[in-house]
Design a protein that fits this description.
Elements lengths: L3 E8 L5 E9 L10 H17 L2 H4 L3 E6 L1 H4 L12 E5 L7 H12 L3 E4 L17 E5 L9 H9 L3 E7 L2 H10 L3 E4 L13 H17 L6 H9 L2 H12 L10 H6 L3 H16 L5 H20 L6 H10 L2 H5 L3 H4 L7 H8 L7 H11 L3 H10 L4 H22 L1
Parallel strand pairs: 2-3, 3-4, 4-5, 5-6, 6-7, 7-8
Antiparallel strand pairs: 1-2, 1-8
Helix pairs in contact: 7-8, 7-11, 12-13, 12-19, 13-16, 17-18
Organism: Isachenkonia alkalipeptolytica
Pfam family, one: EAL
Protein name: EAL domain-containing protein
Length: about 400
Amino acid sequence: MNMYIARQPIFNTEKRVYGYELLFRRGRESRAFDGSSAAHATASVIAGLFESGIEKIVENKKAFINFDHELIGMDFVELIPPSRLVVEVLEDVEVCESVQERIRYLSKQGYQIALDDFVHDYGSYPLVKEADIIKYDLMATPLNTLRETVQMGLKEKKVLLAEKIESEEEFQQAKAMGFTLFQGFFFSKPAIIGAENRTKTTTKTQYIRLIQELQREEPSFDCLAEMIGQDVNLAYRFIRVISGRTRENSVDSIKKALTYIGLKELERWIHVLMIQELGSDKPQALVQLSLIRSKFAERLAKCSRLKKQQHEAALMGLFSTIDALTDRDMKQALEGVSLSKTVRSALLEEEQGELSDIVEMIKSYEKAQWSSIDRLAKKLNLKPEEVFDCYLQSVDWGKKTMADMV
């Protein structure tokens, strides 16, 4: 079975991940969901989540999955525990007595019910009473048109979710109105272009010194150990990372830790630690996104015609959110960072260069733009199932790497 599954994070007011909306499509043959193809696709996804473990896709968070009229009546919903699944009722579901009864039953079983892209009259829509979460698409229903319905929802203690938030300003406005869940790409964009954070600049300088030493023809382990030892926070985090990847019971020196991994792997981990450090006051989902993109880009390149560029692809993916992490535009964020022409071109001129197809594939996958994914998979000589396998492995790697860095 060929299957695409993508996830989009849903945040709380603290910008911590509450859950993930799962977006999916079965194979190349279906361009959209209509009729039985939607039912079969959703059934396949839920069965897959049940068999392989839902935590592989959504970790320990909730899965938001769309249900149409036909799907609501199917009993495979109960394969996923109520604590992990939010049943999203699509906006075009025809509400009849059987649908209402089914929703009431699922609610009594402990499933949260969400109304997707709500555009109906709040006071008269039959499913409002059973709904726990009401989602508003801010493209279709801007915030300034929702004040009355928002107040009604808050009065009835509904959880309000603002979808398609594209800026920090929109996030703050929605939060002030009473929304407590948020979905969109606002978290991966710079908040204040051109802002200079002295603490981050100092930290970045230390990492750049390490990277420059690693890129010498014959890097010195003594110099590397000395530089890492000058920053107690970096030394502690580095030893923790290495300790989790060696069979030794203890690592008694930084220099000894350096010998456990090759220089290429060391350079990779320095980059990872740099991203995590720069993102210390950012949503953890943004740091995790960098890690997932890094592994996704590497896996896509390795499985495709760009195999020789897999290491550069990994670095490109890792640095793809550095503008948001440093609240500067990409060109400013990369100043003083030693990168190959291929990586720098991919980050600054996304539509050009050897890695442009990888860049586009990552962004298309995150937005569940299935037709673009099909086109790019063909260009990269990849099969649809390979794309999803690469994504699933990347999500798992990102989760484990974040755990290592805590």
